[in-house]
Sequence to fold (831 residues):
Amino acid sequence: MARSRRRDPRSGARGTATSWPQRLALVAFGLALAAAGAALLEAGLRLLRVGEEAAWADPFVGIAAGGPLFERRERAGGDVLVTADAKLPYFNYQELAARKPAGGYRIFALGGSTTAGRPYDDRVSFSAWLRRYLPAADPSRPWEVVNAGAISYASYRVVLLMQELVRYEPDMFLVYTGHNEFLEERTYPAIAHGSALRKRLWLVLNSLRSYSLARRWWRRQRGPATAAGTTLAGEVSALPDDWTGIDRYRRDPELERAVTEHFAHNLRRMDAIARAHDVRLVFVAPVSNLKDFSPFRSQPSDGLPPGERARFDELLARGRQELAAGRSREAVVTLLEAAHLDPLHAEGRFRLGRALLELGEHQRARQELVAAKEQDVVPLRAREPIVRQVGEFARRSSLALVDLPQILAADSRRRLGHDILGNEYLLDHVHPDIPVHSRVAEEVLEVLAAAGVVRRRLGWSEAEREAIYRRALDELEPAYYAERDLNLAKVLGWAGKTEEAEVALRRAAGQLAGNAEVHLNLGILLQKQRRWSEAEAELERALELDPASPEAWFNLGVTRAGSGSPQEAAAALRRALELRPGYSEALYNLGVVERRTGSPERAVETLERALAARPGAVETLVQLGLARRALGRLDAAATAFEQALAAAPGSAAAAAGLGSVELARGRSEAAERLLRQAVERDPELADAHFQLARLAARRGDREAAIAAYRRAVEIDPRLAQAHNNLGILLAEAGRLEEARQALARALEADPGFAEAYFNLGVVYDRAGLAAEAVAAIGRALELDPANGRFNLAMGLILAARGDGERAAEHLRRAEAAGLAVPPAASGSGGQ
Fold:
């Protein structure tokens, strides 16, 4: 190759120059050498099985370290592995030999509460039926089927559990997963929302042992702040377990896409773990109750104009009435119009699906019922993309699949004439009844027979299997089904289905007399339905049976607060805190009671303790902001509301709270913008309407203020201040009877509201009802004897009636309070 020559200007000597092609070749050679070294390093790590767990770490979320599922225990016949005590709230108790029997076949079933057997337990789960059927069909070898299903476990927790279970000599993993992917609150790293190519490259990089080991080392050096988008607790903290429950869910398409991608990645991780340890992997596709389970929560389409929203509500109500009356054809017409107005409203789509089903239009009915499930903003039933991924991944990866949706659909077509699954197969939204668990076990047995793992003995028949099934059912006592009903009621109540839960719980109560847990849960259900006296009776019965139950004291406190007994509520909540210090829900509710009963200083202290017990809780931050606002600590209140909005940008309550602070600061434009945002996000937020009413009154727009106050008290009749302010405006407009009614409602909501008594007296005085005026203002003075305005008004009314001696006494008190006497008294009471 020819080389160009150049002279070194310092020495006069000639050097050798390198051409651009040569430089590029050298760079390429260096890169190839580095790549070859990296490939050799990666191959060596894989060959030596170094860094396996690091490579299987979750790049989307972190999970704090938790204890193992199984602990080793000594037994006379040999050591065993048993479920750790700390895991029993989530898992069934299981026991297996520490060393797998010679020639044995060990199956671990993984997944969520369906795998666990809920609302029953392991005794009728598909794991249990496999335990019964396998040795009967093939007695030639020892069979072990271990139920490692856990309540509320999602796919990422299943993967983590697999990493432990590979130590226990598994032959097969049987996985039923998909329903719990949205249960735990989490955020995703920014790359999870990026382009498909970028995401794919990121996932490939995370799969490399060398990179994973380096990442793990770096995170240890830098601490948890460098972990994935969210670091979850060692055990499940499900969103609906929170005292605000399903109300925290909102429609979030971006989160859904990230969750779906995360689920797909978890399927790949499961496959990688199984292949690395030569373990058979079998998936069961999840099923949902479409036909008989209405959506948990509907959210109207964003930007739907108020007129169209009102029209939709009217159509939905009419359609439900027509459907209940058996007028299915009229219901379809009505509900189709509703769906046209708001196609994202889950309840509307569900009712339309039910009406179509009644008409026998099965295909259209199925489309609507699936749409209802997909539009449900509380996605506790597996989304369709997740269900599809299970089947597609199994087929693409040549893995065995029990396609349960198709299996049951075929059975339903044969039995019922359609393929829409409902209560015939499922006890609630997702949990199958016993026959379905048995069917899963039968299908798995067929999978193993097809693979040559099971060699069915001569004489094994369907009749023999059915006999085993019947004998097992005959052994179950009535109390077992009552426990099922109790668990079912807890799940339904947890999900907001209080009426359905009550039916199951009443059945359980018939068999489980004297069970404190039954009375506790019945009290909670009645409380959620605002049946206060019934709820209080059940909770008091629960406390008779178990006086040291913090949950019963907590719920008794919530019930008493709801029934208008704040002092008794506070006492019950404090008792709950004595039994369980740091009980965040009790602290939160106690703070709310203290704020509403005029003790904002104590409320701030209590809510700050609640926030310390559960940092970042949006509802606690909102209530803390309201308590600080009541004390006039506007900057501190704004900080709390801003923190709530940072944690939950869609929080209507936080936006309304911040808007109220801006209103108090005199920033009307900013206040109105925030309050309008709050009403748009949650049209049923009473405080937002209350603050908008104050804003309108400040502008002098009396009619707008009256309308907004009316809307606030329509949503929450307990808003005594809103009733009071409404009464003042109506009195100013000369609408004295309406004003009297509004003030009477203020006093119903708060019998100790002195200002409302005073304003009621002013209204009576303007109506010429002097005796009633004296009585009302007299009651205000009993509650606040030194109030100058109250004394001035009383003095003037008494003077006008000719009662000079009493009038003079009240006028002296008014002067002592710094008021001028006469010429006039104001009737305003605090807008």
User: Anything to note?
Assistant: The CA atoms of residues 482 and 508 lie 4 Å apart. The mean pLDDT is 87. Residues 20-47 form the longest helix (28 residues).
